[in-house]
Automatic annotation (TrEMBL):
The keyword Cytoplasm applies. One of its GO terms (biological process) is isoleucine biosynthetic process. PROSITE patterns: DEHYDRATASE_SER_THR. This is L-serine ammonia-lyase. It comes from Pundamilia nyererei. Belongs to the serine/threonine dehydratase family. GO terms for cellular component: cytoplasm. Keywords: Cytoplasm, Gluconeogenesis, Lyase, Pyridoxal phosphate. Pfam families: PALP. It catalyses: L-serine = pyruvate + NH4(+). Pathway: Carbohydrate biosynthesis; gluconeogenesis.
Length: 322
């Protein structure tokens, strides 16, 4: 069997979040993965399948997909080129270099970087590593739900799952994982920030839409268009997907509260999911009857992220809270 690059992550009960929601909240600590986020599950799997004999991988990324691709490539002894937009903080560019990758900064947002990555894959004969839109990624991400079932034991089923949505790869992987274990009746709360809300916009329009620009500071949620599979799932009568938005201020407040209460620093993309609890969205959905009032434990996917440190947190505070 091929080597697996991701780790089994802890499932922690959060006393503070549980108090807020009135039901047990479990945190799936994907921040603890090598490369700093859940992305290594899918990207590690994709690289195992597609890049074993590659002359090099190329990945377009807001940061975390690139970190995962660089990590997997280094393990496999394959060169990695990561194309990031100028909105990716310098600290991530440094982390990518430290992971042995060649880094190029192209364009303003992820979509610009992706156009360049697709072009280079073609002209240089490199293996393209998609950050969110590929069935192998979803298959890899699905392993996190299998781990949750093992951690919870046979008699416990989540009342709902909370995920962040960028291009929708995490969402597709979580749904695949829920399908694999027969939990398709578990509602999913899909969180985005205003200004990086391509999935919410698609649901409202009834079709995929492309945002004009990414104006949110949650740059790793900053795909202008969601992937088709995520949209198709949103239209499926078999699934309950509730799409909700928070402001950048709410996402920032969430990462600060999480740091205070759980002693873990995550980036804005993850803050969007955490804000579902800290900004009272779960309780509102219960009051509106969109989630059951008495529900089983809430499963929070703590997707993690490397685009944060104390300096970046201070910058965000100045930008968003002044
Ligand atoms: N980030 C991608 C896409 O960016 C990237 O290149 O890293 N949480 C974190 C910490 C993430 O980094 C991402 C995606 C998400 C959530 C959302 O995952 P997705 O894109 O699969 O919905 C533009």
């Amino acid at each position: 069997m091929a080597e697996v690059f991701h780790l089994k992550t802890p499932l922690l009960e959060s006393i503070n979040m549980s108090k807020r929601v009135g039901t047990t909240v479990y945190l799936k600590m994907e921040n603890a993965q090598p490369s700093g986020s859940f992305k290594i599950r899918g990207i590690g799997h994709l690289c195992q399948q597609l890049a074993r004999h590659s002359k090099g991988v190329i990945c377009s990324s807001g940061g975390n997909a690139g970190m995962a691709a660089a990590y997997a490539a280094q393990k496999m002894g394959v060169p990695a080129t990561i194309i990031v937009p100028s909105s990716t903080p310098p600290l991530v560019v440094q982390r990518l270099h430290d992971q042995g990758a060649t880094v190029r900064i192209v364009g303003k947002v992820w979509d610009d970087a992706n156009t360049e990555a697709l072009k280079l894959a073609e002209t240089e004969g490199l293996t393209y590593v998609a950050p969110f839109d590929h069935p192998l990624l979803w298959e890899g991400h699905a392993s996190m739900i299998a781990e949750v079932t093992a951690s919870l034991g046979p008699s416990v089923k989540p009342g709902a799952v909370v995920v962040s949505v960028g291009g929708g790869g995490l969402l597709c992987g979580v749904i695949q994982g829920l399908k694999d274990v027969g939990w398709t009746d578990v509602p999913i709360v899909a969180m985005e920030t205003v200004g990086a809300h391509c999935f919410n916009a698609a649901i409202k329009a009834g079709k995929l839409v492309t945002l004009d620009d990414i104006t949110s500071e949650a740059k790793c949620l900053g795909a202008k268009t969601a992937c088709k599979q995520a949209f198709d799932y949103s239209q499926s009568s078999e699934l309950t997907i509730i799409s909700e938005l928070v402001t950048d201020q709410q996402a920032l407040h969430a990462i600060q509260t999480f740091l205070d209460e759980e002693r873990v620093l995550v980036e804005m993309a993850c803050g969007a999911a955490l804000a579902a609890v800290y900004s009272g969205i779960i309780v509102r959905l219960q009051n509106e009857g969109r989630l059951p009032a008495l529900m089983g434990p809430l499963l929070m996917i703590v997707c993690g992220g490397s685009t944060i440190n104390m300096e970046q947190l201070t910058n965000l505070k100045h930008k968003l809270q002044s």
